Amino acid sequence: MTSLHVLRTGVANLASVRAGLTRAGAEVIVTDDPAEAAEATHLMLPGVGAFGAGMAALRATGLDQVILDHVDAGKPFLAICLGLQLLCRSSDETPGVEGLGLLDAHVGRFPDTVRVPQFGWNRIRPTAHATLLQPGHAYFANSYRLTRIPPGWEGAMGEHGGPFVAALERDRVLACQFHPELSSDWGQALLRRWLGTEDTRC
After folding, report:
1. Could you give all domains of the chain from N- to C-terminal order, each with its CATH number?
2. Which residues 6+ apart lie within 8 Å of 126 measured at CB?
């Protein structure tokens, strides 16, 4: 069973995340200890809530640098919902707060012409060279989003008040705006592909 460290930030529902990852074949360890997280083979950043609060929690514990080092080392990394947004430079949600900067992108709010937040199922369409992401329907709960895939990344797009980024992937990094742990069998299959507990050719 794959050992996976989930970062405790105080801005996530860890019960559903833990249950979903366990079903996908992971031994889940929840931690906010940067020394412990630095030794992880697989690392996950969940998140529900505000951009500023999420970044404050990471910086208060030193987990921001742990994430940067983990990704730089080429180790498997998963970000979910707010977790994806925290990888960006900045967000309209909390002006003036710097994100992790792994993605050269700014997070904007959905237009008022559609329901905000977006709650529920939406169809996603992977880019041509995505390897982990496959067509399907995923469960979303978000008010903010990216509108284009940054250069050098593959991913998947959705439609809600215009195109938006549903997920990103590059090397061992998978970042999902949706909640794979709440996305039924399709989401479980995605988690298994990322964990390596399912054949990626399926």
Report:
1. 2-195 (3.40.50.880)
2. 133, 134, 135, 154, 155, 156
pTM for the structure as a whole: 0.94
Q: How far apart are CA 17 and CA 28, in angstroms?
A: 9
Other CB atoms within 10 Å distance of the CB of residue 26: 25
CA atoms of 78 and 25, how far apart (whole Å): 15
pLDDT tens profile 155-176: 999 999 999 999 999 999 999 9
Q: How many CA atoms lie within 13 A of 83 on its CB side?
A: 31
Q: What are phi and psi of 148, to 5 degrees?
A: -150, 155
Catalytic residues: 81, 179, 181
pLDDT tens digit sequence for 100-120? 999 999 999 999 999 999 999
Tokens found for residue 162: 């215009």
Tell me if 51 sits within 8 A of 93, measured CB to CB. Answer: yes
Plot region of 200 (φ>0 → left; ψ -120 to 50 → alpha; else → beta): alpha
